[in-house]
């Protein structure tokens, strides 16, 4: 074959391939936009070209738009159920079992008693070990009491806002640590 003819044949084959590819894309775009004639809004088809997993081969799948919307709604419901509305703003719906708009006072009382008990226990252990790090007892007590507060918040009143619970826990721990620290300091001076 002569070089001139083979170039012409190659150009013709490329032109045919490009034309076939362009007509296939136009048909795919027409069906993916739902502009097929005679189709109503509820049964129009959506086509998507997706590669097969682990392959470079692309397959075109066409589905009814209503089926896709049903799957999306089911997926949203499943995600909401799994996340338990974790990343949604808290609205504080009162009246549901276990939910309220604020954390209960009994929860704050439990946090305060937990702080005092853990601090006193840690102070006794530190004194028995002969260490002079009494402030460590208050750090340990604050960690334990704040974790108890978070647990109570999640169990008893998840509808309350996180900011108000943090503020409340901080104020309760402050109101507990100041008198307890003063009592420990007075007791240490009497020895």
Structure commentary:
This protein is mostly helical. It folds into two domains: 3-83, no CATH class; 105-190. The protein has helices spanning 3-32, 65-83, 105-129, 134-156, 162-190, and strands spanning 45-51, 58-64. Strands 1-2 form a two-stranded antiparallel sheet. Helix 4 (134-156) packs antiparallel against helix 5. Mean pLDDT is 75; it is low at 25-40 and 92-99.
Features:
mainly alpha, two-stranded antiparallel ribbon, 191 residues
What is the gist of this entry?
This protein has 191 residues and is mainly alpha-helical. It has helices at residues 3-32, 65-83, 105-129, 134-156, 162-190; strands at residues 45-51, 58-64. Strands 1-2 form a two-stranded antiparallel sheet.
What series of H and E elements makes up the topology?
A: HEEHHHH
Give a count of the beta strands, DSSP E runs of length 2 or more: 2
Overall pLDDT, averaged? 75
The radius of gyration over CA amounts to 35 Å
Beta percentage is 5-15%
Summed up, the domain count is 2
User: Spans of 5+ residues with little confidence (pLDDT < 50)?
Assistant: 25-40, 92-99
Q: How many angstroms separate the termini?
A: 112 Å
> Helix/strand-derived class?
mainly alpha
How many H/I helical runs? 5
Question: What is the makeup of the main sheet?
Answer: 2 strands, antiparallel
Helix content: 55-70%
Query: What is the approximate shape?
Result: elongated
Describe the strand arrangement of the main beta sheet, using strand numbers.
1-2
């Amino acid at each position: 074959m002569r070089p001139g003819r083979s170039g012409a044949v190659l150009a013709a084959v490329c032109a045919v391939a490009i034309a076939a590819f362009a007509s296939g894309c136009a048909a795919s775009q027409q069906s993916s936009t739902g502009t097929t004639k005679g189709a109503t809004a509820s049964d129009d088809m959506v086509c998507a070209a997706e590669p097969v997993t682990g392959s470079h081969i692309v397959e075109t799948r066409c589905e009814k738009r209503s089926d896709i919307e049903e799957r999306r709604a089911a997926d949203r419901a499943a995600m909401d159920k799994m996340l338990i509305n974790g990343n949604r703003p808290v609205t504080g719906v009162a009246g549901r079992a276990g939910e309220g708009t604020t954390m209960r006072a009994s929860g704050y009382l439990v946090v305060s008693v937990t702080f005092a008990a853990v601090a006193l226990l840690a102070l006794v252990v530190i004194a028995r070990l002969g260490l002079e790090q009494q402030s460590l007892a208050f750090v340990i007590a604050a960690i334990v009491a704040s974790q108890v507060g978070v647990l109570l918040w999640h169990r008893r009143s998840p509808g309350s806002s996180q900011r108000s619970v943090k503020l409340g826990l901080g104020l309760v721990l402050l109101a507990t640590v100041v008198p307890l620290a003063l009592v420990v300091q007075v007791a240490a001076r009497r020895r």
